Amino acid sequence: MKLSQVKEILNAEVVVGEEYLDREVKSAFGSDLMSDVLAFVKDDALLLTGLVNAQVVRTAEMMDMKAIVFVRGKKPTEEIYDLAKEYSMVIMTTDYTLYPSCGKLYMAGLVPNEERVD
Amino acid sequence: MANSSVKLHYEVADNDFTVAGEASGAVKKVLRQLGFPSDVIRRVAVSMYECEINMVIHANGGHIDVEITPDKIRMVHTDKGPGIKDIGQAMQKGFSTANEEVRQLGFGAGMGLPNMQRYTDEMKITTEIGKGTVVDMTVYVNKF
Ligand SMILES: Nc1ncnc2c1ncn2[C@@H]1O[C@H](COP(=O)(O)OP(=O)(O)OP(=O)(O)O)[C@@H](O)[C@H]1O
Ligand SMILES: [Mg+2]
């Protein structure tokens, strides 16, 4: 799924990276726990989170994630903005909360991205 | 870099959450420039990042020494924090002593050490109560 479609489905506002909306994401992961992101995410995936701080952007960068959606209308800080620019990442915000955001993308065919940890 | 090695040194500031991750981010960049495989880069970056965050939230900062050779990447994290009382317990998934402030930042799930164990090929923790902790991790490039 293209990021432009993600934007449309979530009625999202693009804060950083308007020029990269052509990028494809093949899967997504929704969490407010950064250690879970670091444990579970396997491939270049989309991150959906209600947590808004610089560490979210750094975590996504560590996992080669190309885009982050901040849910329930949370506005990113300037620090987030600068880091995302530096990493050529796309940042969007949506008014939906985490569950409906994930649900809408899932229904549109964006599958989960999880590696089981045993 | 046939027989060469690259040595990097980073200071990790105490309790500064905004910069936690700068060292691992920098190493990631270097490994990319040197042309290491992407799975190796990610394993190093994630392990180092988790460890760097631990130094900030549990151990008043410290320093990291990284040695990059063609066949392996070694990362040694040294802090002068409180030490770890029971390493076996700390290694368990879900065990965390992180405070509320740390949890609100998205950490403190007790997944860091298990993640490091999983992503690295060798991991050794040396710790002394009241003195500090050394976490020594190695990722091999050609692991078949
Ligand atoms: N460098 C350190 N110095 C002192 N204690 C540590 C250190 N690293 C880890 N610990 C102890 O081990 C526990 C488990 O660490 P681990 O990284 O697995 O989880 P966490 O940091 O609490 O949460 P998460 O990594 O999921 O954000 C910590 O809560 C802390 O009590
Ligand atoms: Mg940790």
Secondary structure layout:
The complex is a heterodimer of chains A (118) and B (144).
Chain A: H1 3-9, E1 13-16, E2 27-30, H2 34-40, E3 46-49, H3 54-62, E4 67-70, H4 78-86, E5 90-93, H5 98-107, E6 111-112
Parallel strand pairs in A: 2-3, 2-6, 3-4, 4-5
Antiparallel strand pairs in A: 1-5
Helix pairs in contact in A: 3-4
Chain B: E1 6-12, H1 22-33, H2 38-58, E2 62-68, E3 72-79, H3 87-90, H4 100-104, H5 112-119, E4 122-128, E5 132-140
Helix pairs in contact in B: 1-2, 2-5
Q: Tell me the number of structural domains of chain A.
A: 1
- Could you tell me the radius of gyration of chain B in angstroms? 15 Å
**If you consult CATH, what is the topology of chain B?**
Heat Shock Protein 90
Summarize model confidence as the mean pLDDT of chain B: 93
Class from helix and strand fractions of chain A: alpha/beta
The CATH homologous superfamily of chain B: Histidine kinase-like ATPase, C-terminal domain
Give a brief rundown of this model.
Helices cover 36% and strands 19% of the residues of chain A.
